[in-house]
# Entry
Amino acid sequence: MKKLMLTAAAAALTLSFGVAQSWAQNIQPRLIRFGYGLNEDSNQGRAVRFFAEEVGKRSGGKLKVRTFGAATLGPDPQMQNALIGGAQEMMVGSTATLVGTVKEFAIWDVPFMFANEKQADAVLDGPVGQKLLDKLQEKGLVGLVYWENGFRNLTNSRHKIEKAEDLQGVKLRVMQNPVFIDTFKAAGANAVPLAFAELFTALETKAVDGQENPYTTIVSSKFYEVQKYLTVTNHVYSPWIVTASKVWWDKLSPDEQKILLESAAAARDFERADTRAQAQKALDQLKAAGMEVTVMPEEEVAKLREKAAPVTKTVIESVGQPLWDEVQAGIKKAGGTN
Ligand code: TK8
# Structure
């Protein structure tokens, strides 16, 4: 009995020593302000909280992530600037609003480029995805990992959109990004770039007729309250990106950086699984909330693709053929075509 207790005590000692050892890594007490645009009750909010808990656990409570949802620290472009200036530490948001900072990011906005999530994961988590993350450094940002926003679909309050031509004249809010503006202009819509934080009010007051986002966001942002028609188009796969302020990041120890990177990657895996599990449920919720759901027939989607072809060409000219080829090779390797 005594021997057993002694062994237990020894084990406890080793254990606490082990813990003390990992705490003895170079980790300082730090507060990390982490902003995001969607509501707390969203796939984005859940993943940010997961990230915060991971960072807490992995740093023995020394690194504290304080989360700010619903764009309380400002819309994506404003937060990006705060990160660059060092006034905010971290955020997750659309890659789309980074195109003005690093032009190559336009490649993720090319309509109909990824056919499924498997292709998107392979390319984003592969060498090309990393290459783009690395390009942010010289602009004052550190790109950690990509999370999933998802395939985007159209909603509007004006009329049912079933054919490509039904988009004609519809005043559609798009992300603040030239590829989105050009794609929807080419489709005949009146594309209006607007910050996501202003979108609900714009839809409610009918300043715009419609918008496009994944099902999960249409639910978590309650767009179904002010939008009657949903059209399934899956016109583009949108990634989110987790970024940090470079001036701040450079002051962190390698141990601290490792904790943040690994936690962001763990949160990515959690987020993608959660988002995918929620997507079908979200569609059911939208139907139950009274939205009229129309699946755009394939031949009509093909017309949208055709109209978007010149936009894709412009993107290739801007990002360069080699980068485009790399992405296409990644898609091929992941299986299938787009
Ligand atoms: C949230 C946005 C949102 C995006 C958009 O801040 O703006 O429509 O899809 O997820 O990043």
Observations:
- Confidence is low (pLDDT under 50) at residues 1-18.
- The chain has twelve helices and eleven strands.
- The longest strand covers residues 141-151.
- The pocket of D-xylonic acid is lined by residues 37-38, 76, 93-94, 149, 175, 196, 213, 217, 238 (CB under 6 Å).
